[in-house]
């Protein structure tokens, strides 16, 4: 798939002013440029033109793979700058959250990450024998709705689908409370969300039924889902299926076991059926709206939504330069996609990790790990 950032820099010139300064020139005002740059991490290039693993304080000095399990050794580049940090870190892949937790509980590792991906969340007992961490994430679990054709080409039917979902009940049942119900296309951490002052679309199956009473419901909805990414996709889909059936839809579920192929079928071929389970990961409100919602750019992850009022509000937000003005402008755009949703909004899962007592690390909402905190 085409690199999603390329179009942002089509009219941009990058110049190395000196060893530490890069000058960026854009042909027109682009207030969100720095936020776009913050969404990816370029690697240093060695003399042979190859990327150097470990662009931050640590450098990968060894990588081994045994029995299809990778293990990387990282060394601190400048110990004098970070005297309290470990000189060496060994990072080992463990595919299941259950396995990662067992390795920590048995003392074989010092930290276990991404424990929110454990199939059985009851295993997260948060006992005091370990040091636990938990933070709400910027990730959004959603269902793309087929806006160009079928029943979800109607704004009122898209709204009805959202009214049919009891988001808090879903969070309690599927995530055991370890998530935040979604209210719009971005998380509470995103620009403009606070100013929008939004709550999740209220659970109202009676109104949902009223909005779709004119439809011929004899043909089942085609619901597509992967097994993972988002985690717990099957359980979420089971909840959504029951909820839509409760307002008299019929629902046929298709499970795709090949996750990369699933992404290609959604992004490239727009094969979403009537609705498709997915996750939204950009950390900037601009990128979510520009890549996935705006009908102007027709980005890879745009699935046919168009709303004149949203386009007007987004055009205003993307040129707002001052902080307060940008926050308020993006808030108005977020309110509009709450009123006329392009997607079925689900939740923002928590990020969960655990360490041995005395090991200090933290993970931010976007998943960036920091040592010493």
From TrEMBL:
PANTHER family referenced in this protein's UniProt entry, alphabetically: D,D-DIPEPTIDE-BINDING PERIPLASMIC PROTEIN DDPA-RELATED, PERIPLASMIC BINDING COMPONENT OF ABC TRANSPORTER
Superkingdom to which the source organism belongs: Eukaryota
GO molecular function: peptide transmembrane transporter activity
The name this protein goes by in its record: Glutathione-binding protein gsiB
Keyword terms, alphabetized: Signal
Keyword Nucleotide-binding in record: no
Gene3D superfamilies in the record: Dipeptide-binding Protein, Domain 1, Dipeptide-binding Protein, Domain 3, Periplasmic binding protein-like II
Limits of the Solute-binding protein family domain: 4-258
GO biological process terms on file: peptide transport
InterPro entries (alphabetical): SBP_5, SBP_5_dom
The UniProt record lists the keyword Signal: yes
């Amino acid at each position: 798939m085409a690199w999603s950032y390329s179009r942002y820099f089509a009219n941009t010139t990058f110049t190395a002013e000196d060893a530490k300064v890069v000058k960026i020139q854009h042909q027109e005002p682009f207030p969100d440029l720095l936020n776009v740059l913050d969404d990816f991490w370029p690697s240093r290039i060695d003399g042979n033109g190859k990327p150097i693993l470990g662009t931050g304080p640590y450098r990968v000095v060894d990588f081994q793979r045994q029995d299809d399990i990778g293990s990387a050794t990282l060394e601190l580049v400048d110990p004098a700058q970070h005297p309290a940090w470990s000189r060496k870190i060994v990072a080992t892949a463990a595919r299941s959250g259950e396995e990662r937790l067992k390795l920590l509980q048995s003392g074989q590792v010092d930290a276990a990450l991404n424990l929110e991906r454990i199939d059985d969340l009851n295993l997260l007992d948060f006992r005091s024998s370990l040091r636990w961490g938990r933070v709400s994430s910027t990730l959004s679990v959603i269902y793309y709705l087929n806006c160009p054709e079928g029943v979800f080409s109607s704004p009122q039917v898209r709204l009805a689908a959202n009214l049919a979902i009891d988001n808090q009940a879903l969070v309690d049942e599927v995530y055991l409370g370890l998530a935040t119900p979604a209210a719009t296309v971005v998380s509470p951490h995103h620009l403009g969300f606070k100013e929008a002052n939004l709550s999740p679309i209220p659970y109202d199956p009676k109104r949902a039924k009223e909005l779709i009473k004119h439809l011929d419901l004899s043909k089942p909805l085609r619901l597509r889902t992967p097994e993972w990414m988002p985690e717990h996709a099957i359980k979420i889909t089971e909840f959504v299926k029951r909820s839509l059936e409760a307002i008299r839809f019929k629902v046929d579920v298709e499970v795709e076991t090949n996750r990369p192929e699933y992404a290609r079928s959604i992004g490239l071929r727009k094969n979403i059926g009537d609705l498709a389970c997915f996750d939204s990961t950009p950390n900037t409100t601009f990128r979510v709206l520009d890549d996935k919602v705006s009908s102007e750019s027709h980005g890879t992850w745009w699935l046919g939504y168009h709303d004149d009022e949203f386009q007007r509000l987004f055009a205003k937000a993307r040129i707002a330069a001052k902080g307060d003005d940008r926050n308020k402008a993006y808030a108005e755009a977020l309110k509009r996609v709450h009123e006329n949703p392009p997607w079925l909004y689900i939740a923002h899962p928590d990020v969960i990790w655990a360490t041995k007592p005395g090991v200090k690390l933290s993970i931010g909402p976007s998943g960036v790990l920091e040592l010493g905190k």
